[in-house]
Design a protein that fits this description.
The protein is α/β, with parallel strands linked by helices. 29% of the residues lie in helices and 18% in strands. It has one domain: Phosphatidylinositol (PI) phosphodiesterase (TIM Barrel), CATH 3.20.20.
Length: 247
């Protein structure tokens, strides 16, 4: 099965990490979306890649200083297009409601949480509780560059499939030890500098392999021919229909 995963939703057609971007993935017959999850000052879990508001909203400052009631005053869409004026930063609760409603599978990337151990624990506890809302028929992967977080999530929710993320320059010889320590079923390596030999090493450990971020169809075909299971992409709508099999 060759799987397309809409990176931050259909992020080339709608503002990234918004409910509109996630809904568009389904419109283009893509079952899987990837999103990023972080935590606000009051413990609310939200979908956001950055820990600042500057790039993807009409406000400035740190994400972690916000409370849930602040979200309704933040425009997370007009930076992308006037069509998305007043798009909101989604909560994880609203994300899961949408996934259940339109039958989306989720790759939730837990951000490393730059505000310290206290909020990291609250982030882990919050995601554990939130995932109980997800329809059991939906597929789920929890990924992170923070292997301490993955280890703790696997310990508390052992049936949840987890994925270790690696940048090209951090994919050292200890990758296998990290995978085993986290109890990961998936490895998510960066597309950059990834070779067929590396793919075969991952496969020899019976790992599922999803590669980020692939926006070239020729490269995607090469990776699939090497045996990767999925790719994260910003341009899922440009892929042939054989890769887009929404149910």
């Amino acid at each position: 099965m060759k799987t397309l995963i809409a990176h931050r939703g259909m992020s080339c057609l709608a503002p990234e990490n918004t409910l509109s971007a996630f809904s568009l993935a389904k419109k283009y017959n893509i079952d899987w979306i990837e999103c990023d999850v972080d935590i606000l000052q009051d413990g609310t879990l939200v979908v956001s890649h950055d820990d600042t508001l500057d790039r993807c909203t009409d406000k400035h400052g740190k994400l972690h200083t916000l409370r849930a009631e602040d979200l309704r005053h933040i425009d997370a869409g007009s930076w992308f297009s006037d069509k998305y004026v007043n798009e909101r930063i989604p909560t994880v609760h609203s994300l899961i409601q949408l996934a259940n409603k339109i039958k989306l599978n989720l790759n939730i990337e837990i951000k490393s949480c730059t505000t310290g151990a206290y909020y990291t624990h609250k982030l882990i506890d919050g995601i554990i509780i939130a995932l109980d809302e997800l329809d059991e028929r939906r597929e789920l992967i929890v990924s992170s560059f923070n292997y301490l977080i993955l280890h703790e999530i696997k310990k508390q929710r052992p049936k949840t499939k987890v994925a270790c993320l690696f940048e090209a320059h951090t994919l050292y010889d200890d990758w296998k030890s990290i995978i085993e320590w986290c109890g990961a079923e998936y490895i998510h390596p960066e597309n950059k500098e990834l070779t067929e030999n590396m793919i075969q090493k991952f496969k020899s450990e019976n790992l599922k392999i999803n590669v980020w971020t692939v926006n070239d169809l020729g490269r995607a075909n090469e990776l699939f021919n090497w045996g990767v299971d999925g790719i994260f992409t910003d341009i899922g709508h440009k892929f042939p229909s054989k890769y887009r099999n929404a149910q």
